[in-house]
Amino acid sequence: MAHIPQGSTAALTLERFQPALEAALRPSADYDVDRWLYVPNTYSEYRYILGTRGQKPLICIGINPSTAAPDALDPTLQSAQRIALANGYDSFLMFNVYAQRATHPDDMEHVCNAALHEENRKAFRYLLSLSEQPAIWAAWGNIIMKRDYLMDCMRDFLADGKEAGARWYTAGPLLKSGHPHHPLYLRRDTKLLDFDIEAYLDT
Q1: Nearest-CA neighbor of 135 among 92, 105, 173?
Q2: Which residues contact 115 (CB under 8 A, 6 or more apart)?
Q3: What is the predicted pLDDT for the residue at 185?
Q4: By C-alpha distance, which of 88, 12, 87, 1 is closest to 45?
Q5: How many CB atoms are located within 10 Å of the residue 26 CB?
Q6: CB atoms within 10 A of CB 163
Q7: Which of 152, 155, 111 is nearest to 9 (CA)?
């Protein structure tokens, strides 16, 4: 079933990232918290993180979440997990440029919610802290052009990644448009290639 936003996220009382993370680290009757990281740990109009736990995670960045949840990955996240494992990572962590859930990107809100973005940045910094040299897979396709604010959000994540000494990758060559491939239609054995995120954002 598709997720259609029920209105502006500015009208929501946001669950801040830190207390949402603390809740997600506690045992749950709904899923195995030793296997999954799911923040917030209940289905809502936004999602900060969904992925698996491991010693060598790959941070995968898409545009915005859809309906996926622990033990119920959608095709995009299934593909992301397969490619992460095929490239030598033992886990994957799905993060998104914007945290609002919307199965169809055209349904995303037209104005960036600064409070939601700031909590999402906290989530990103947490993911970066899980590795000595974080590995980030840019995996958003042409969808990043759907909203003007998405590139601005990415510039903040670039700054956070630089501070953490992160290394950026794309799966296979860039699209003709210059954007990195979306995971959905990639072969499971697609190799990760170095990605110059600074040059990309400059152009």
Answers
A1: 92
A2: 10, 14
A3: 86
A4: 12
A5: 8
A6: 10
A7: 111
Burial code of 73-104, b = ≥16 C-beta within 10 A, e = fewer?
bbebbebbbbbbbebebebbbbbbbbbbbbbe
Question: What angle, rounded to 10 degrees, do the helices at 114-128 and 17-24 form?
Answer: 50
Backbone angles phi and psi of 121, in degrees to 5:
-60, -40
- Please indicate whether residue 123 or residue 6 has the higher confidence score (pLDDT): 123
- The whole-number pLDDT of residue 21 equals 98
Nearest residue to 99 (alpha-carbon basis) of 79, 122, 77: 122
Cis? peptide before 75, omega within 30° of 0: no
DSSP 72-128: B--HHHHHHHHHHHHTT-SEEEEEESS-B--SSGGGS-SS--HHHHHHHHHHHHHHH
The pair of structure tokens assigned to 103 is 């199965």
pLDDT of residue 1: 78
Mean pLDDT across 54-80: 96
Q: Which amino acid is at 98?
A: Y
Instruction: Point out which residues pair with 62 in neighbouring strands.
Output: 96
Q: What percent of the chain has pLDDT over 70?
A: 100
Q: Over range 2-25, report the average pLDDT.
A: 96
